[in-house]
Amino acid sequence: MRLETALIGSYPKPVRIAKIISKKNNGKISEEKYLDQIFDFMNNFFDMMKSFNVDFTTDSMIEWDDIADLTYSFLTNVKKGSLTRFFDNNFYYRQIVINEKLKYKEDNTYIKYFEKAKELARSYNFKLKAVILGPLTFLKLSENHYYKNEEELMKDYALIVNSLLKNIKSDVVEIHEPSIFQKGIKKDLLNTLLEIYYIMLENIKAETHLLTYFDINFDRLENYMKLPVSVYGFDVTESNKNRLGRLYQFLKGKQVYFGILDSRTTKMEKIVTIKRIVSTASEKGIERLILGNSSFNDFIPEIIVQKKFKLLQKAKEMILNG
Asked: Quick check: is 45 in a domain?
């Protein structure tokens, strides 16, 4: 079994970066100085990821408030709405308010920032991932005042993401789709998701990592595992450990991401637990296993994230070296 490690989603913003962003938003610093600080941080972040020997990472999402803010950057006919809780977490995002037909913003800052990130990451061995919000989760995190049909909303969003991915030219795409395992999702929406994903990923040659977190819903697993992606992601932290034994039977021959580092607690994982999960995954026939954090890292302090990835690096080295 092939074993790799990755950082998914975001990295906690240091206080100095938060201050720089605040100054930029208040017009107290030029765009040039702001970008210098952002890209300097990104460079240091990539050095850190190299030291942790990860195989995949994002650009840290340092330039965005959250994944909704990132998504807002490449859409037109949308507005930022009220602060809303991000699933069952003490973390809030601004809803994307849709009052007109969704359209792609050709000249968007996401591509500009990601092009610079690709340039900075070029000398490293890890692969850089573009981050995308999945169409179902986009629907659920938005406030829709235009579309009478939710499937049409997701189709328009999928077409926009397809255009973005063709322009961004990333080797790896990280798709966040936690809503597929959440309560209250209509069956007809789940049944249309396969078609939506084919639209979104049509002629996209990149490797695709599909991520879920906070829950595992076995009633939705058939819909999930049919989606046309390279890697299927699961949250296998403490709250889901009693589901892991049953989950393995669906993963034989698959490429899988396990969110094994709990992004919602400062409690450290145990190397012996990581080794046991890797050993069982290999025995159960998983073809390729990527290990990393379970969700966005904004929920815990920066120093804890670093400690968790140092621990993961140590576990990986112990496993690979026998």
From this structure: no
Q: Indicate the pTM of the whole model.
A: 0.96
User: Edge to edge, what strands does the sheet with 92-104 contain?
Assistant: 75-85, 92-104, 142-144
Closest CA to 114 of 175, 45, 61, 54: 61
Q: Whose CA is closest to 189, among 229, 146, 154, 231?
A: 154
End-to-end distance of the chain based on CA atoms, in angstroms? 13
pLDDT in tens, 175-209: 999 999 999 999 999 999 999 999 999 999 999 99
Q: What is the pLDDT of residue 138?
A: 98
| Residue 22 maps to a domain | no
Residue 24 within a domain: no
Question: For the domain that residue 307 is a member of, what is the CATH number?
Answer: 3.20.20.210
pLDDT in tens, 200-256: 999 999 999 999 999 999 999 999 999 999 999 999 999 998 999 999 999 999 999
* Number of structural domains in the chain: 1
Residue 84 lies in domain: 2-15+53-320
